[in-house]
From TrEMBL, chains A, B:
Coiled coil: none annotated. It holds the Pfam family DSBA. This is DsbA family oxidoreductase. It comes from the Bacteria. Transmembrane segments: none annotated. Residues 5-208 form the DSBA-like thioredoxin domain. InterPro entries: DSBA-like_thioredoxin_dom (IPR001853), Thioredoxin-like_sf (IPR036249).
Length: 237, 237
């Protein structure tokens, strides 16, 4: 029986980028990795941000949290150093902030197309490792989605319709609140175990192992009546 | 948080066809239906059947289970009557039997493309409601898959490669055994509750309600250390 991991994430979240790599390092070494299913779910760090408001992240962070620009820049460099330890490219200055709602809508579309993980990697790379901004530029977003294997015309149709997959994003965000996620990344294993934050790889190994061992608990049968079914001995009706 | 329903099924199984309709009737009335995720999983009733062995099901059933052809035909008519009560088309004679492995491989391919449910409906309709046999005729299978919204060339590529998605089918069958499924349809709710057989709709309503109410149990946190995460108040590193 598969183990299911749901990862709540935002494109604006550098620790989501790092946490994904740490989780994947654990998964790559996990004996039952072929029976682990991963799905990415939406969490906006700043859902109230107007879609047309975008710009360099360092002065934004400094203003929002009342720290100096130097301190904000140092934080970015510290994250870049952590990324480097994981072999992840990270530009230590120059990334933008912006509203990620359209990206989350696209991630739900990509889930239907079997390209969600590829799109999330492409969005992270676009935001954290490449010089062109990913916010406020629809053509750039289309190019990233196409790079992740999605059909250009379908991507444009999703982006052009603000209602497309919007309910899926909102549902994820309600679920996140219900599951106790106050920040991201937030990992949920088989609706039972949670890992909060970009924990060390061994914590993900522990969570995978715990969830895996737990999945063999016997099922509870709902209703005991015999109902018609087919088995190796036929279909008694 | 979504509730996840896994339905083990075989194309050769008339009660899977009926059970799907009963489950869907319950789901359509379920208050939280938009937060229920359904996935179909593979179960072959006769995995040892050679792929080139196919033919009318009634004499096959009669021979296999040592009943008269008249009794086997009467069983089919009884199933057709149950199908009619659900508004499902069902030809009361003339369907074929055959090896369903290629169909299960295609259902896994369709899952990746977001068309699994549509393909299963099309396969059931092809086998139980339409006069042309679905076994032993690759062109017919391609036509059914295309009708379900899949790309013809990709479908042909999957069918031409006997290894494509074969491991997924085998994994489902191992999981079915582990979950205690000895026949189909077999419904598993959130890896915790099971419904066996084409139960009445109200049993599915009960299972959905039980699983839904259960999903709000608090998560167990794996590791208590604070790890870097981003929240509404920023990304302390």
């Amino acid at each position: 029986m598969t183990t299911r991991v749901e990862i709540f994430t935002d494109i604006n979240c550098p620790f989501c980028y790092l946490g994904k790599a740490r989780f994947e390092a654990a998964l790559a070494e996990f004996e039952h990795r072929d029976e682990v299913e991963v799905v990415h779910r939406s969490f906006e760090l700043d859902p109230a941000l107007p879609a047309d408001q975008t710009g360099p992240v360092i002065p934004r962070i400094a203003a929002k949290y009342g720290i100096g620009v130097d301190q904000a820049a140092a934080n970015e460099r510290a994250i870049a150093a952590q990324a480097a330890q994981l072999g992840l490219p990270y530009r230590s200055s120059g990334r933008d902030y912006g509203n990620s709602f359209d990206m989350h809508r696209l991630l739900h579309f990509a889930l239907e197309k079997g390209r969600q993980d590829a799109l999330l990697d492409a969005l992270y790379a676009g935001n954290f490792a490449e010089p062109e901004p990913v916010f406020g530029d629809r053509e750039r977003l289309v190019a990233i989605a196409v790079r992740a294997g999605l059909d250009e015309n379908q991507v444009r149709a999703v982006l052009a319709d603000p209602n497309a997959y919007a309910a899926d994003v909102r549902r994820d965000e309600r679920d996140a609140a219900q599951l106790g996620a106050t920040g991201v990344p937030y990992f949920v294993f088989d609706n039972k175990y949670a890992v909060s934050g970009a924990q060390p790889t061994e914590v993900f190994t522990q969570a995978l192992t715990t969830a895996w061992n737990d999945r063999t608990a016997p099922l509870i049968t709902v209703d005991g009546d015999n109902a018609p079914a087919c088995g190796p001995d036929g279909c008694p009706s």
